[in-house]
From TrEMBL:
It comes from Hibiscus trionum (Flower of an hour). This is Acid phosphatase 1. InterPro entries: Acid_phosphat_B-like, Acid_phosphatase_pln, APS1/VSP, HAD-like_sf, HAD_sf. Belongs to the APS1/VSP family. One of its GO terms (molecular function) is acid phosphatase activity. NCBIfam families: plant-AP.
Amino acid sequence: MFFFKLFLLFSFFSFTFSHDIETQFHKFDEELKLQCTSWRFSVEANNLSPWKTIPEKCLGYVKDYMTGRGYKLDLERVSDEAGVYAKSLELSGDGKDVWIFDIDETLLSNLPYYVEHGNGLEIFDPIEFDKWVQMGMAPAIEPSLKLYEKLLDSGFKVFLLTGRSEKHRSITIENLTKAGFRTWHKLILRDPEHHGKLATVFKSEKRGEMVEAGYRILGNSGDQWSDLLGAAPSRRSFKLPNPMYYIP
């Protein structure tokens, strides 16, 4: 009887200890999730100073977000709201009403590359990324493709304004076409004279040239704030989610 009571007592304490440990782990997991959600909010709201990599503690969080339902829902939300805005506009009919799209993480997804390179935990390696670009395998971001097609059908002139190098023009056209983006008014890439310029400066200059040519920039879609901020802004801009990297 003594040993039986001792066994019951030991079992009780073991259960209590295990339950307490499980509760503590759950609380830690919830706190980490809240911390990483707060970090991602600050990224998307452009409240953080320039950053180079995601926090190491948030690797699992960012991976789960980017490969899960949350990222897809956020992309759909952005494109749906952009579509509502575009539909509310009355276009002039003179071919001067423009919508600008960035390419990487806006029209084309480089998620397959980033899954293999730490989901933003690794320092960006331009040589390795160029190898990925040259493969021309980036899939379409489907909500952006649907928005893109609606805008073309509505009579918008679509400009593609990207930080990709001019040397990648052919493979970029091939990749875009393969992914379903089959027509646009102009594809603008960085030529040698623009290398070294911040993306905000480069894209502001190119938008300024559009305005000087008489175009009206009614919409702009990009995953980086540098796609959207600066001189000659669009009448309304739409920021797609991207917690994996930051381009000033």
